[in-house]
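About this split. The held-out portion is used to measure sequence recovery: a designer receives only the structure tokens and must propose an amino acid at every position. Recovery is the fraction of positions where the proposal matches the reference. Here is one held-out target exactly as it appears in the evaluation file.
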């Protein structure tokens, strides 16, 4: 049984982004069409993007996730380059 697109969107916005990740409302735009989730907007840390994507994929009724998310801080390059790490 497939879930309605609006139910999938509500779960992603309220539960995944809001409760689980504690993201500010409106930072990430979520649209769902025929179970395909599209994410756009910006997150704080680059490392958050794959987490958001995986959590959205785990929501019942999601067929796939397309994301075009930007980020404010590239925390992955800092972690990969110890000379750039903040002490």
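Reference sequence for scoring:
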């Amino acid at each position: 049984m497939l879930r309605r697109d609006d139910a999938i969107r509500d779960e992603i916005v309220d539960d995944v982004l809001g409760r689980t990740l504690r993201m500010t409302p409106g930072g990430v735009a979520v649209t769902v069409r025929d179970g395909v989730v599209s994410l756009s907007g910006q997150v704080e840390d680059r490392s958050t993007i794959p987490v958001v994507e995986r959590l959205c994929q785990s929501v019942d009724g999601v067929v796939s996730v397309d994301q075009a998310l930007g980020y404010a801080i590239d925390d992955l390059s800092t972690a990969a380059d110890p000379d750039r790490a903040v002490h």
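Annotator remark: The first strand starts at residue 28 and ends at 33.
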